[in-house]
């Protein structure tokens, strides 16, 4: 029997042929992350499973009513819940910047640092370190960030450029791949090079194992200027 939970949507990011959707449930003054997942091998969520009536895509900062079946933790991704594919998601309302500020987290670091890819920095965790990880989602605030739009290598000029976010948090530098489709397209449209973000919230996710590593990803970006200009927080 399905249980319905209201989540503040804090990610609707690319994942294989579908999406990875995640949000916070706020209940009786407490909050916890929930990531609805499917029964597929990679647990991505299809369009039919996540969209509102009229094929409307859920947006970050929507409050969504989501039918779920039961917790379905996968390793350190303890936030996972199996979704009920028979029932449609519903939008309840949206939150603003001030309400988003109340959800800010303050982790000491973004999991384990010191491991890098050729294009990233502090962007991977070796699979053998996985037993040191106890969760997979963080909502952090950064004063600024640089979005880097680059071709992966000189022979990839005919492919779509990659988008990475470079920022500092808690004394460490990160350069992480962006999987937020809205901001990927926005910054690709602005062309190759560096693009600056002002004060922003980032949803950072630690993905499932891929070729011996877990990768840190910027699953959503919420820039203050995109939400409202009147907030002082």
State the helicity in percent bands.
Answer: under 10%
Strand content: 35-45%
- Name of the CATH class of the largest domain: Mainly Beta
What's the total count of β strands?
14
Large-scale geometry: globular
Organism: Saccharothrix espanaensis (strain ATCC 51144 / DSM 44229 / JCM 9112 / NBRC 15066 / NRRL 15764)
Pfam family, one: DuOB
Protein name: Dual OB-containing domain-containing protein
Domain Dual OB-containing: 5-221
Features of the shown structure:
single chain; 233 residues; mainly beta; OB fold (Dihydrolipoamide Acetyltransferase, E2P); eight-stranded mixed β-sheet; 4 helices; 14 strands; 9% helix
3D structure, described in words:
The chain is mostly beta strands. It folds into 2 domains: 3-95; 124-227, Beta Barrel (OB fold (Dihydrolipoamide Acetyltransferase, E2P)). The chain is 9% helix and 44% strand. It is built from 4 helices and 14 strands. Strands 7, 8, 9, 10, 11, 12, 13 and 14 form an 8-stranded mixed β-sheet that branches. Strands 1-2-3-5-4 form a 5-stranded mixed barrel. Strand 4 (62-71) and strand 5 (80-83) form a beta hairpin. The mean pLDDT is 93. InterPro entries: DuOB_dom. It holds the Pfam family DuOB. It comes from Saccharothrix espanaensis (strain ATCC 51144 / DSM 44229 / JCM 9112 / NBRC 15066 / NRRL 15764). Residues 5-221 form the Dual OB-containing domain.
């Amino acid at each position: 029997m399905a249980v319905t939970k209201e989540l503040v949507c804090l990610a609707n990011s690319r994942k294989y042929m579908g999406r990875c959707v995640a949000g916070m449930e706020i209940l009786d003054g407490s909050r916890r992350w929930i990531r609805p997942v499917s029964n597929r091998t990679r647990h991505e969520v299809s369009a039919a499973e996540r969209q509102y009536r009229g094929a409307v895509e859920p947006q970050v900062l929507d409050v969504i009513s989501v039918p779920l079946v039961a917790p379905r933790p996968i390793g350190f991704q303890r936030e996972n819940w199996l979704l009920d594919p028979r029932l449609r998601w519903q939008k309840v309302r949206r939150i603003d910047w001030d309400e988003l500020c109340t959800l800010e987290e303050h982790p000491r670091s973004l999991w384990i640092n010191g491991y890098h890819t050729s294009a990233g920095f502090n962007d991977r965790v070796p699979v053998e370190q996985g037993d040191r990880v106890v969760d997979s989602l963080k909502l952090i605030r950064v004063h600024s960030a640089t979005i880097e739009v680059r071709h992966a290598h000189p022979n990839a000029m005919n492919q779509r450029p990659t988008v990475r976010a470079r920022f500092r948090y808690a004394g460490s530098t990160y350069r992480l791949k962006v999987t937020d489709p809205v901001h990927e397209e926005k910054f690709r449209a602005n062309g190759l090079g560096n693009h600056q973000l002002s004060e922003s919230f980032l949803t950072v996710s630690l993905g499932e194992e891929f070729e011996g590593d877990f990768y840190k990803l910027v699953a959503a970006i919420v820039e203050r200027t995109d939400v409202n200009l009147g907030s002082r927080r």
